Amino acid sequence: MRRNEDKFPDNGFEAWGGYMHAKISKLEEQFSARAGTEETLSNIFNGVSIYVNGFTVPSADELKVLMSKHGGVYHVYQRSDDYIIASNLPDTKVKNMNLAKVVKPQWIVESLAANRLLDYRDYLLYGTSRTQKQINFRKIIKENDSLANDIKFNDTKQEQDLSEIHKTINEPNTTTSDQKPSKERLDNATSLDCQEILKQNLGAVTKTAADPEFIAEFYKNSRLHHISQLGACFKQHINELRENSNFQFPAREQLKEIILASNNFKNLSQLKFEKNKIIMHIDMDCFFVSVGLRNRPDLKGKPVAVTHSKGGQGRSKRPGVDRDTEFNLYKQNKAKKLGITTGISHDEIKIENRVDDIDEEDSKYGSMSEIASCSYEARAKGLSNGMFMGSALRLCPDLQTIPYDFDGYKEVAYTLYNTIAQYSLDIEAVSCDEMYLDCTELLSDMNVNVQGFATILREEIKAKTGCPCSTGFGGNRLQARLATKKAKPDGQFFLTEDLVEDFMYDIKLRDLPGVGSQTAYKLESLGHITCGSLQTLTLASLKSHLGNKTGAQLFEQCRGRDPNPLTFHTVRKSVSAEVNYGIRFENNYQCLEFLKQLSAEVHSRMHQFKAMGKCITLKLMVRAKDAPVETAKFLGHGYCDVINKSVSLQTATNDLEVITKEVILLCKKQNIDPTEMRGIGIQVTKLDYVTSRPTVGAINKFLFNNKIPKAKIKSEIKAELVETDQRNNPTTPTKSKVSTSPKKSPIISIKSPTIRKRGRPSKSLRQPSNNLMNKFLQGQNVGRDVPYKDPMIRAVVKEEVERKVEQSQTPRGLLGLPWNKVRALLRAWLDSGETPLQCDVVMIIDYLQEMVINKNIEKLQVLMNFLRRTTRDTGSVAWLEVYNRISEEVQNAMVAVYGKKLYISN
């Protein structure tokens, strides 16, 4: 039976079959009435009905007018025989719906241009494939515009640019953007000959962010996007390998045999590294170039660069471009920052910039396309990664360029990681071509020398990938990384304990990880360029010049020390998507549509990483006041002011509607002219993960490395208990009991719909049980003396209870420790300086709720007062949120079990 017949009887719409039937019928009657009163231009679409799904160009309103004027039918709600007009569809719809009649809007426009109904099968959005085809941003070639039949397109015919047509129909002089085109303007525009509109707009057109398919094409070709995504991909790959591994490595035996069989390593003794740790750093040499040269062996030994540009071809100078002004703004901004850092007047600071050798865009040295990677032959001539092509061609006129090969990079990277993973999973993934490996256990187990291991491993990687790599070994990650720089290209270097002091003396400060241009410039202004020079400064002096954190870090680094261990399990802290190229809007409508698309991209990535977030940040790059309107780099962002605005949600989410709504609200509040926008980014932080995989947090680390002075624990706990007793009963220094008066009891009363039985909890509560808390919270009968349980409280904790029911009944984590050790662990957690993780918070809540069940109220009050005091002392919003959540869960448990809240002093 239909829902409207069951739940909405006698609502006045029975004659039409219910409310929705009435609504649909009314809309269709309105369309028919309008079509009957308007002048019919043709019957091209006679017998055709369409339904528009999502954003299209032309828009749904425009298509509605076109159908009414040319004999077709437009449905607001989809019917089974409709042609679905769409530019793109979500993956869920693509997988589940019939795609046989999902057609691109170009079918309508080009049928009008041809003055006949074209075969819709030539315009299917997906054809026979269930993967959406991505367009290529190429120019449309116009060979002869005298006749419509002579019009020729490139190989993506049906994906021609219609943004200019859309612009024409919507009246190009329009400046307001929140409103859709008026009915009058639509009527006038649709009376134009569509064939003429097409002819007028078939010239060279460049797509911008106003195009509905721009984001897909941007991320398809963005090298920075691919690099970051590959890095995140392989960090996740290592996480999954470790979680699914039994940590047995049979491949070690074969590797050991190869090493021992070689005569080159038989007489070599094992090298000694600092603290008896052996850390290896692996870095592929000129990764993008090496992968590209596998298909271009004729370019080996020549200066080669990977870039989007072919170079040496100037383009027509665009009106409004003022490169000198824009470049000077960059330099002035950098000089001001360095002036603030060093205390030197910015007028006295001379800035060398990578744009210094860039000519105007009509010169062969005017290209601002960046070099992603260049060969060692090119580097020998002064080229470097990140250099503009214009500058590179000045230094190396015979530079050869090759395109990106993102599929090849992924293939080689997987081969690299899987090769290492067959011997050990003590891997810290850095990027698609770089990683650290703790070889200490591996080499000890195989009982081979590190020289043989490094040589054979590098040979295996080169044989499998066709690309060379370099390796560095040291006693920590810093030493290993610096050793790799020494080993390049295609070599290996061992920074043993006896070499560290002399080796570090000549290392340039700019080569230390974490030392940026501002820090390096300040140190150079103080007369320090190398680590050896910096070693003459005391720790106090470094802290006074650079701040406590940076000063202490450099004091250790310049001596080759690095206390940070390798991180084998990576936890993603944010999910984001940013576009800073091609952002050119004409109105607010285009801006809002783009925000929706970018929100969908972020939402897709959150699902990929199974993440939910509580903080949404919108980043806007807005053309600076003095910057030229036309940017030096074609469709680049230029010199901008950056605006970051965030909103915090009450609960973590990955809901697309919520993300989109918050992003649009943040954007509207800034009241920025959309024509001035040059870049947009969305970032979600404070992540929770929708996964059953265990996350190792700080609490677990302390549990596995638990060295807490017992005397200190006893004295602190004893003092805390005395303090609590004195507060609850000032005259009598004895422990308070649950059954005492409200002034003395740590349990405070709350209002209740029924009268609760006062006094000590029933005997059934005295037996500790892992299931007892679940029974209380789920409202089951456990005894007649159980107090009233508010059903609202039960609803609040229901989700948490269901999670606990699924967990093992064996006590683990904090539940497996004596309570007198927990406070010291909590103190170490708070003092660790790490961001509080969800897994740690859940572990603490489990322990405290168990104390509620076991009626350890006095001890619970000690811990809650301690948490309240110490989290306030940190002054951190994140830690205060942690305390508030813990407090809420504990109080919910108290109310569920005792009908009263726990007293926590202020």
TrEMBL record:
CDD domains: BRCT_Rev1, PolY_Rev1. One of its GO terms (biological process) is error-free translesion synthesis. Its cofactor is Mg(2+). The keyword Signal does not apply. Keywords: DNA damage, DNA repair, DNA synthesis, DNA-binding, Magnesium, Metal-binding, Nucleotidyltransferase, Nucleus, Transferase. Residues 40-125 form the BRCT domain. Residues 754-763 have a biased composition (Basic residues). Belongs to the DNA polymerase type-Y family. This is DNA repair protein REV1.
